[in-house]
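Ticket #4471: structure output looks truncated?

Reporter: J.K.
Steps to reproduce: submitted the chain below (71 residues) through the standard prediction queue, then opened the result file.
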Amino acid sequence: LYVASDDQGLILRFNGEFGDYLGRVGGPISTPQHLSFGADGQLYVYSGLQRAMHRINPTTGQILQTTGSIG
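Returned output as attached by the reporter:
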């Protein structure tokens, strides 16, 4: 389970069955919104403040690509 923490600028990962906190993924990302997994298995996160889309490896948390306006 992935949750966007808008006030902290983080994507948080939880165990979907038991709710255990598993750590953060990527970030920090300004106002993370609209989380979605692509057909490629990567996590896509839209940043409302930056007006940019981030492609993140959900296993490593590494931001692989950012497209759109930053700033």
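Triage note (M.O.): checked the attachment and the full token line is present. The radius of gyration is 11 Å.
Status: closed, working as intended.
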